[in-house]
Amino acid sequence: MAVCAMEIVIYAIEMAVCATEMVICAIEMTICATEMVISAIEMVICATEMVVSAIEMPFFCNRNGCSCHMNGYFSHKNAYLWHRNGRLCHGNGQLCHRNGRLCHRNGQYRVSHFNSEGIALTAFLTKLIADLIIHNFLPLSIVESPYLQAIFHELEPSYVIPKRRYFMKNIFDIMYSQVKQNVYNELQLDSSICLTTDIWTSQVNQAYMTVTAHIVDLDASCIKNFVFETTEFARNHTAERIVERLEEICIEWSIGHKVICLVSDTCNTMRRVGLVFGKGSN
């Protein structure tokens, strides 16, 4: 019995030694894993330092012979390089030599100050505002909005949005003439034109007459619509007066011989317009 007990004790000791070795092995594995984590952290720190170094390294402008040194973060608002339509803009009072000119952006001189590029930029931005007003049916007073002015000041501090009178007398008249000429040219290429007309009254009891032309664009496989005009139509709405205005429009746009039909509502006046105009009314 004593021998058996001794063997059990020895076996227990061996088991304890084995367990201890397993604990030591686990500790060593933990130490190894910790070292790997530390190594990974060091690699991340190293990579971060490389990124920071790359971001903070000086930038140089090599466009058209410009060699300006850009300090600080490239994406920082006060130290940026902006190439747009051939213009060079540096923030935070940086300098740019272009075509013999010295340009500043420190609140006193702008890259667009007294040069042809500035004139082109001003015209471009003004045209953008005009397109915004026209295509979104915005009131002309939007040009006086401090929020819109703040946006354009942030984009180009040297640009000042013109007054609404300037848009009316200069921008919109020119755009209207250009669009009218484009529509005129397109109508001359088409052989068949349909007109629609209607007279309606506004909430303030003012009557208006609208005339629209419709053509089929075979190349684009679509119908195109052109509103010739919406003008006030005061006094009596007689068929003779309506026909007279339609004939004036046909002469103005040189389409009298191309109109194949006139579409309107079914009131008696418009029926008579169709008969007098000689193009039929539906």
Automatic annotation (TrEMBL):
Top-level taxon of the source organism: Eukaryota
Listed InterPro entries: RNaseH-like_sf, ZnF_BED_domain_contain
Keywords, comma-separated and alphabetical: Metal-binding, Nucleus, Zinc, Zinc-finger
TM ranges: none
Record-level GO cellular component terms: nucleus
Major place of residence: nucleus
Single Gene Ontology MF annotation: zinc ion binding
Location in the cell: Nucleus
Name the record gives this protein: Uncharacterized protein
Organism field: Rotaria socialis
